[in-house]
Every structure is written in structure tokens, then in C-alpha cells.
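Troubleshooting log. The previous run stalled partway through. Resubmitting the same two chains, unchanged.
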Amino acid sequence: MVALVPTLLRQELARLAESGARLDGRGQWEARDIVLETDCLYNGEGSAKVVWGDTIIYAGVKFEMRTPWPDRPNQGSLMCSAELRPIAGRKYEPGPPSPESIELGRVVDRGIRESGCIDMEKLCIVPGEKVWGVMIDIHVLSDQGNMFDACALAAIAALRTAIVPAERFDVGEDYTLKVKSTPIMASFTRVGGRYVFDPSAEEELGGDERIHITLGDEGHLHSLQKGLKGVFTPEEFAEIFDVAQSRCVDLRKLVANQEGN
Amino acid sequence: MGGYGDVKLLREDGLRLDGRKIDEMRPIEIEAGILPGADGSAWVKHGLNIAVAAVYGPMEAHPRKIQRQDRCVIDVRYNMAPFSTSDRIRPGYNRRSREISKVTSEALESVVICERYPRSKIRVEIEILSAEAGTRCVGITAASVALADAGIPMRDLLVGVASGKVEDIVVLDLDKAEDNYGQADLPVGILPNTGEIAFLQMDGDLSPDEFNLAMEYNFKAAAEIHEIMVDALKRRYEGGEN
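Second attempt completed without errors. Output:
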């Protein structure tokens, strides 16, 4: 379905931006309410549910036993993918994975993978023969804005609660997967000419390009992505990068609170 | 039905492995209107099963060849999340989900007053987030609460429920072990107010008497589930929301 962007919405967003205001009254860098719940799915080896404003995401972790890649005989693997099922909203249609859902899964995947939070060699069971494949599946139930951040949060929270199901595969006792850090994504969308954090569905509809930043525990960059049509300046990036640092710290606390630390 | 005879499914005291009586359902919780972006939605937890259903529409039916001049079509998609089962399911459609989607759609078309919306389409999305036997029934229950939540006129709420047979005993609402190792499974969709049946499948081995008893259990359970569905819909509209 073609999303028609009413000129009036764009004009209103531009007018609000002049006085630093937003449609729902939030500040420029202010997020909607976020509720994170972990261990919420019986069959997931790790699971999380994120309700971020009206956006609702589930993530589940499953383990597979597989033979290692020939060039990395003592390393397991990690893969994160997202499904944008037609339940997620009126505009989503059935069919093979859309470019949007592939981008979503891959950007989240890169942030987690490149942070090095999982030691791939620890996923080796028998070198050259058996390794664990860790699969993080993200299921979008409701897309009402800022899906990327909500998905990334659900994915890392689910991963951090994962139990390796060794007993079911007859290779010893179950144990908690070691996850060394908590990579967090913060995304910014140009709305009414300037960037905002955590756009609502309406702001996304009437907005322009977006930038996704994934930061590790020490504030290092682990993945970047610019999506949709539009350009930005280095000065603009410097500004949102500063905001991303503080937003990621807040979000990381949410994950830590779930784990009872 | 697996039908492996060597797995004990009933205890010495005649109760089932999870402690239920033979005509006892697993606990059910229902919530209506959980997805803000959908026209109607429902969340159903039935034992360890979790299904979420969303309704979008009525909307224009396209492509045009699927349009019906005198009624709407109901486009159902039943899907299991990759993490819903103990072994990960590869994303995407498979033969099982296509068949369940088809018969669920036909069951819902039998209860929705489709003549009200000529040339339209109603999209029903059923996502199984956690699966522990009986997901098609949980999906039907969720879908019909979501349709009611969307304000779509229906002749009745359709209730999904199943009975089956384990160790030659007819039991209500099979759990995972009973489904895997039992002798029969009889999932039905019941209209509790009219006593009609809109969905019917069965596999395994049942005598005519066993079939009748299983149906009796199903009707009794459908009445109970119906109350929980009605209660969820009432709760949704209490307090003047929407």
C-alpha cells in the first residue's frame, strides 16, 4: 500500500519544529513510555517483550546444533532476523520478507554481533563437528513508530536471559549463555526539518531520513545505518551522537533492571 | 497422532500428568483490544499457548478477482513464530499453516455476517507466540474476539476447543504430551448460542461412542470459554475507553 503523506501533516510538523514542539507534546529527545518484560515465552530459550509507546515487539532466542563453517571450525554462530508480519499494521502485506524487514533484522544483528558480546568460540561443542547456532527472532506485533530501537532492545534483552538447552541436545547440563555486554540502539528521524528521538507513527509518516546508532557499554560505536531519503551534516550527526550516548545509558539500565542487578 | 503405546499419560489415580481431570480444561485468559494500531485485536493464553489476533478492515478487496459482489471475503493468516516451539520453526508459510488458515477463514466466514460488506475484505492475522498443543483452536478463539472487538457483526462468537483420546480414555483439551502420544484429536469451532459447528477436523482413531463423548466435552468447554470471551469484551469497554 502506498502511504500518502498529506502536505498538511508535513506543514504542521514543520510549524511545530520551529518552536521546538512535537505532535504529542514531548521534548525533542524525549522517549515515550517503555515497558520491558523478559522470560515471557515458554518455548523461547530466552525471550523479551517490549511495549514502547504503542509499538509492541517480541523477541525469542532459539539454539540449533550445527556443523561449523569449514574456515571457523571452533566457532558457533549468531543470527538475528526480524519478521514484519502483516499483523504489525495496516500497511504491511503478506509475502516474502520485505527489504524493510531484512534491513531491520540486519541492523539489529550488526549491533549485537559487532559489540562482541557473544564469544563465538564459547559456542563450540566439538571443534570441527558440533557448534551452537544462536538464533534471535524478532516478531513485530504492532508498529507505531521507532520499531528499530524497540526491536534492538527486545533482541538484546532476550539474548541476555537465554539458557543454553544442552540437556535437550544431550551435551551436558543447561547453562546461562554468557553475554559480556549490552549493545543498545538509539535512532533519530528528521521530523519538520530537525532530528527527534523516538518518532511516533505520525512523525515517521510525515518525516524524512533516519539514523540508527548502536553503542556498546563503553559508548563505542558498533553499528550505524542511514535509512530513507535525505541528507545530513556532520554537525547534525555530532548532536544526535551526544544524545544517543545518554539515551543508550538509560535504555541499558532498563535491561539491567530486568536482570535484577 | 503418534500413538506410541508405551508413554504413560494417565496417573494411577485416574488424573492426567498435569493433574487435570479427564474433562478439565487448561486455564484460559483473554484480553481484548491489545494492539493499538489494529481495528480489533485479542490476546489469548490457553494453558501454555499464547495467540495474538488482529483484525484490519473491512477494507477494499484487492486484487479485484478475489472480490465477491454480495459479501466480503475473510483473509486469514495463521502463523507460528519461530520461537513458539521447542525446535525453531523456519519463518514463512508451510503446508500446515496454509491449511489451517484456509479452514479457519471458512469457519469465520460462516459466523461473520459477510453480506454486510459486499466487495470488501477483512484481514485476520493470527500469530502463535507460544505453542503447546491446540494452537488452531486458540487461534480461532482469539480471531473471533478480535472480530467482535473490531465491531464486525457476527451471528455468534466462534469458540475453538479440542478433545481427544489417550490410553483409550476420552479427554478434554489435550496438552503437548497427550497430543504427541495420544490416540486421537478432535478440534472443533462451536457457536455456543446456536449449538452449531463451523470448524471441524479430526485425526486418530475414535469409535462412534467416543466421538459423541468427545463432542459432549467440547460443547461443555465451549460454553465455559464463551463466558471468558464475553467477559474480556465487556472489560474492554468498561470505563468508557474508545
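Takeaways: The interface with chain B takes residues 41-44, 47, 54, 56, 58-62, 64, 81, 83, 85-90, 94, 96-97, 135, 137, 139, 141-144, 168, 201 of chain A (CB under 8 Å). Chain A has a mean pLDDT of 94.
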